[in-house]
């Protein structure tokens, strides 16, 4: 009898899964009927995961921008907030309660209707460790950095969703437009389990079709999309690690767009009539992170020596070829208070070498015993000077180009040369992007070349790279791992201050304290660049580097 019951349960479960897959297949069949061309976007690395709540890398986000959506979004080409899955919202006078009114007749790609309850699910699974919807190994790294002020989420009725905050948060609406706040179908976790990390089910203009790791991710048009129907029938996100190969493929027309551009290729591409370059000042930062939990980088003197040894102008010339500006602090000029003046650490190799020598010179007290002329024992207290070699430091770097660092290994070589010139021993540890990310999150580095792309244009988002509450081993956004109570206090004050005239002063204080504590060395703010074939229309370079392909089309015009 027990065997029959188990068999029946198994058959019922199989029927449910079959029904779900048939639903997906039905929508995929409809998608094939969509009219339009295929668009191929080449980038230097593959996505890591496709669960919006559990990613923090740009390559994953580029795909999710087209599959999933949030309650609000950034107006194209800006960081201004506009409605998306929510038609409107109301914020309480104290800034601690926000009610969103959701659009009606919106469907997830699996046919699940969008309601206040299905929307709430995407937030509750991040808030509550016991809630359903948490795939194995999920870290939800962005939640403590951006959303920890959310106290509760509840459905008031079928289409009204209420958020209550522990504290007011000036960046709340901006954070709601960032990818961890994208909605996914609750049914997808029920049916796919951990598979939802590789098969996202959102409400966006394109639906997921297939993924060949390290080769391509394919999306197809969503014919049931609630907004303007996409003009492309299919999108292919193609992985092409080599900068030179991506350039050749855009020149020959094998792909329609490339990013991760090597500035050395600019002059060649600018002469191509069938290509066009989109370029704008970047909302990004390339930096050298110190592992402040790990000796010897937990010593401020050594961090100061490193900061004074790096030749930033030479780095900008060699790596960026004029497509970046020197960074003196973590915030890029486009979001920094214009009145803010943060003095950079000066280049001074002599002083840096002197500091390293001090660290390698240890004075030890000793006691010498001898006898005087009458045979009495005499003890003499004195000091001896010993030289202690600093350990070889591991400098971690990604091998794939990043928007803030187009040639990471070249940058690592230049920094290694600068640091060895002041007496340090450096070992470069180069890994592909995913492995690099995992290593620095787990604090395996002494030094790490890393970076940040602004998610929402708010200073709080950028400065999360120094926030002690974002320094959890394994899911860290703060890969410097510096924990300082005063810095944490200032960051919290800036986050909660809703007076736009008072916030800049708080962030000025954050930047000045960060300059003194030195958890990282700001290196560069790079220009954002994407190269397109000339017949690509409707592509907008977004400040957050989101890749929105819904409005994109391909014209039949070809430049002779």
Description:
By secondary structure, the chain is α+β, with helices and mostly antiparallel strands. It folds into four domains: 33-68 and 204-281 and 529-560, D-Maltodextrin-Binding Protein, domain 2 (3-Layer(aba) Sandwich), CATH 3.40.190.10; 69-198, Dipeptide-binding Protein, Domain 1 (Dipeptide-binding Protein, domain 1); 284-355 and 389-526, Dipeptide-binding Protein, domain 3 (Roll); 361-387, no CATH class. Helices cover 30% and strands 24% of the residues. The protein has 16 helices and 23 strands. It has helices spanning 2-32, 58-67, 116-127, 142-147, 172-176, 186-192, 243-252, 266-270, 300-309, 312-320, 349-359, 408-420, 433-441, 459-462, 485-496, 503-517; strands spanning 38-43, 72-74, 81-83, 86-91, 97-102, 150-157, 160-165, 206-212, 216-221, 234-239, 257-258, 275-280, 284-290, 324-326, 361-371, 377-387, 393-398, 426-431, 447-453, 520-526, 528-533, 536-537, 553-554. The strands form six sheets. A seven-stranded mixed sheet has the order 8-9-10-1-11-21-12, sandwiched between helices. It has a six-stranded mixed sheet with strand order 14-20-13-19-17-18. The chain has a four-stranded antiparallel sheet with strand order 4-5-7-6, covered by helices on one side. The longest helix has 31 residues, at 2-32. It is globular and about 105 Å long.
